Amino acid sequence: YPSHQISVANGVFLQRGYTPGERFLRLAQHIYKGTVTDLDFERDSNGAATFINEWCTKATNGKIKEIVTENILRNTRMIVANALYFKAKWETTFSPYGTRQRPFYLDGEQEPAITVDTMATTGCFPYYNATAEYDVQIIGLPYEKGLSTMYIILPNGSNRQKIREKLASMEATHLNWLIERMVVKKGRVLLPKLNISNRIRLSSILQALGIRDLFDPARSNLTEIFNDKPKDPIIDSSHESEPIGLPNVQNRVDVSDTPKERPYTQKPTTIGPVRQETAQQPQNSQQGLSQGGPIATLPNNARREIFIDLTAHDCQLIENCHYPPDYDPAAHEISLANGIFVQRNIQLSDAYRNQSSVFYNS
After folding, report:
1. Under CATH, domain 4-88+197-229+332-354 is a member of which superfamily?
2. Helix (H) / strand (E) containing 7
3. Class assignment of domain 90-193?
4. Are strands 78-88 and 100-105 parallel, antiparallel or unpaired?
5. Contact at 8 Å (CB) between 130 and 178?
6. What is the pLDDT at residue 45?
């Protein structure tokens, strides 16, 4: 949709002289739709930084103009970059005539306010007053077509300290719990015009998510990027009777009949929050496999199988990819065609055409 744009760009930039293997190139281009480029970090770090930043600028329509600096590249051999661009129109727009200077409190109403340009609109919005549970209120501002929503959580008596406390105590489970209880109500929204930019050190965040070996020089192993002749994969048939483990995928879809309890805001000291709608494991090994090729599986309450033409070794490089031991790629071929045929002189809308093309490849 022209009024709802989401694009993702992935790029791998290698020091010139490091040649990636054909298998890595195929995975980067086929699975992640990424580009792989060699640059001279050592002798032309300024030119390499310019190239990567221009790539990011183009991918984000000029919103992010610098993703690396020259000094970072001098001792670098590989840069993995990801850029996400999102642009959409509000479902309930803010009238330009309603924008004016209004007071904004930087640290709660007990401190002096400043005046900033503040937008205003009136309409019906998803809302929930969670004062009794979390001492906050939440409102949703949907974008056009209803494909995305921006949620704003406002602590009661908000100030910087309260915001820090909520950021430290509330997680995705709490946010999902609040969203599920929202109801549409009519109201007036005042929102200051703002521009947010920040630099985040992702290494600590990725390690907290479980990606630790990559940052440990004694355990990191990136040879698969350059190795084109891997050893034949070993499939242990002695474990064929064991059920295949399923990932605990975080989502907001709950098809169970068991009502959820309100999640506690205090973080556990030893383990993370546990999903209440855990997936059941298959009864036998055949339930976890498909008659087709390698598949990636999700829990039963959000199950989806994606068939990809990969070798057994390439499947090992992708999380949640299951390769049936007896699978023969030459014996399996799947094709899907979608077509819409309309009486001549009947015009389809651009939105319908775009949806058919993007989602159904028709």
Report:
1. Antithrombin, subunit I, domain 2 (3.30.497.10)
2. strand 4-15
3. mainly beta
4. unpaired
5. yes
6. 92
